[in-house]
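RESIDUES AND SHAPES:
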Amino acid sequence: MPAGLTDVVAVDTGHYDNIALKADGTVVTWGPEGWTQPPTGLRGVVAVTAGGGHKLALKADGTIVGWGGGSFSQIPVGLTEVVAVSAGYIHSVALKADGTVVAWGNDDWNQLGVPPGLSGVTQIATGYVHTLALKADGTVVAWGDNAQGQCNVPAGLTGVVAIAASLNHSAALRADGTLVLWGSTTNGAGEVPAGLTGVTAVAAGGSHNVALRSDGTVVDWGSATYGQLGVPAGLGDVTKVAAGGFHSLALKSDGTVVCWGNNQVDQCAVPAGLTDVVALDAGRVHTVALKSDGTVVCWGNNSVSQCAVPAGLTGVVALSAGDYHTVVMKSDGSVVAWGGSNAYGERSVPAVLTDAVAVAAGSWHNVALTAGGAIVGWGSNPAGELTAPAGLTNVVSLAAGDFRSLALLGDGTVVAWGDSALGLSDVPPGLTGVIAIDAGGLPSTLGGGSHSLALKADGTVVAWPSLQYHPDVRVRVP
């Protein structure tokens, strides 16, 4: 977030960046380097919204200004008297003062198919490629992509006072304070299976989780789109687990590796004869393993050299895989990174980092804990994921996900920082007794579900965001 940003009255987050409206009617945007800024001199703004790559600003005179995202920000000629605006991933919708709706942009999923004669609309909301409209009579109308039922408004739904739409689900708040949800269940990655106990290790994937139990068996939950929940029959004697974008891994006590789930780019094609493995991790579509001799083996997608282990690399004691890059820590406290485009500097290890005792790779950023207890971060920082809270001490381990970082403290509590828009850095109140942490999630456009996990000393697992804390993030249809 830009330093010194104050007097903000409204914010929105798009797929790549963020937008804020200030009290003086000006607009501020931030995110990955290179994304477009508001037009020079833009003032008199009363509402803002961000889509996939485009942003929209509604002015007090009822007109709209758009920028970024190519044609998706091109406002229909003559559009005036607008009172609300909402941006989907690649389409936009405006509500006019007369209660009618105008839509523009991409129409591949009929997201521009405003129902003929629709009027009396008081609110609008856009999901990834679907749209909701709330009418003055308290009913809801939906159109666009309905692959997961996000446009199947529940029969008899009335008395609605507010609406919201996300990736593939929709929500309506009724006047009596009840919440009605429909569409995707968002894989349930943020909801721990009832009765899960005796857990000794956990791993968070793109939209699923894997837990190792004290008897050496494995339990998983969340999305099963690519078979990542298909724990091989009879799998036991497991000592460690890992989870990638859409695949899962288990390390057995004999040093061999078992993998299941998506194998489209050989991320589950464990090299023949691979043994003596002592640690492993998985990126979005690649897998890395640390052997007892301190060398590293990598397999899967190598489109941006994420499997190009540096020649002669030895002495490795820990590793962590980001979306498309890998970070390892050596016995001498030095850190080596490779893979990725390095567009955000994710593989540019800071020169001052020479005494690391722990490392964690997020989607496009990394964090390391030094012997002196300091946290060093590098890479992408659009949500402040590199900015550890001032005065943070007694850190014993780290985890990193998409746009946020987590620290486990010696007293068993957890601190998180970075993206809070979806509750990703909102650690559940009263969480104590934690002995391990992990963070998962992919961009929602890839079917991911950002979430974090904490393993407690009593063998139970806590996940968040969840229905309890953020009902709009982890959806289960009533």
